[in-house]
UniProtKB/TrEMBL annotation:
GO terms for cellular component: cytosol; nucleus; proteasome regulatory particle, lid subcomplex. It comes from the Eukaryota. Belongs to the proteasome subunit S14 family. PANTHER family: 26S PROTEASOME NON-ATPASE REGULATORY SUBUNIT 8. Keywords: Proteasome. The keyword Protein biosynthesis does not apply. Gene3D superfamilies: 1.25.40.990. It comes from Macrolepiota fuliginosa MF-IS2. The keyword Transferase does not apply. This is PCI domain-containing protein. GO terms for biological process: proteasome-mediated ubiquitin-dependent protein catabolic process. Residues 77-248 form the PCI domain.
Length: 266
């Protein structure tokens, strides 16, 4: 049976809200909730058998919009659910439905999501399962982008990861690149805390890939660093941290007493 007329009406509203400039995030979220209920009632959320081709196209389009909406709404668990539901359309009905221009952008987003969660083994398994040759992957900007990110992360080429944000093939990719940079900054910060007592603000901003001072100061506050704006430095000794004094004199006296006792035994 074709989708109910109300489902078609909601679908039209969703497209209008999603393509609006700017995108109406809140309205899209409300419409998607209603549409998913409609898809369940029509047996199209997880289709089985041989449903109507047009119905499948509408259902796939709704779920794809939902996947992009999830990233724009910064709701990664929601993206995971939409991606999981789309697998039926991309695999079971992949030979029946015409190709979707959104499929590989969404697959690429899923690959970057795996990187941000440090699920490297699953990243490679997912990549190998794609119906693309090595040459096709290199030529597909939506897949080659996360592939390059993974290689640069393994190499420690963090500056290339940072520059990749401006080279993202879709606006939604920047959300995950920003998430990756957050992880990278925390790793660099931990190393900096161990290696230095302090750094000039300018050097710290460069080291942590912060384009402006306000972002650096916010990050420093989150890490509990001491900032001296007068001298223009950051101290990595956290406030309230106590230094442990080594009792040198007692250690020396104890060592000498131990040596004397050994001499008496001999």
């Amino acid at each position: 049976m074709p989708p109910q007329q109300s489902l078609r009406t909601l679908y039209t509203e969703l497209i209008r809200s999603f393509t609006a400039q700017p995108c109406d995030i809140n309205k899209c979220g409300a419409l998607l909730s209603q549409l998913k209920i409609g898809l369940i009632e029509a047996g199209l959320l997880l289709p089985q058998g041989e449903p109507n081709l047009n119905d499948l196209l509408v259902a796939r389009d709704i779920l794809e919009i939902g996947a992009f909406w999830s990233i724009r709404a910064r709701d990664v668990p929601s993206f995971d659910r939409y991606f999981s539901q789309l697998q039926t359309f991309y695999t079971d009905y992949g030979s029946v439905l015409p190709p979707s221009k959104r499929e590989y952008p969404i697959r690429g987003l899923n690959l970057i999501r795996l990187l941000t969660q440090n699920r490297i083994a699953e990243f490679h398994t997912t990549l190998e399962s794609l119906p693309l040759s090595a040459d096709a992957i290199a030529e597909n900007p939506f897949i080659s982008h996360p592939v390059n990110l993974e290689r640069w992360l393994m190499e420690g080429s963090y500056s290339k990861v940072w520059n990749a944000r401006e080279e993202a093939p879709a606006e939604e990719y920047k959300f995950f690149v920003d998430s990756l940079m957050g992880t990278i900054r925390n790793e660099i910060a931990s190393c900096g805390e161990a290696a230095y007592e302090s750094l000039p603000l300018k050097d710290a901003a460069t080291l942590l890939f912060f384009p402006n001072r306000s972002d650096l100061l916010r990050f420093a506050d989150e890490r509990g660093w001491q900032v001296n704006l007068t001298s223009g430095t950051i101290s990595f000794t956290k406030k309230g941290e106590e230094k442990v004094e080594i009792p040198k004199q007692k250690l020396i006296s104890a060592s000498l007493a131990y040596a004397r006792e050994l001499e008496q035994i001999v």
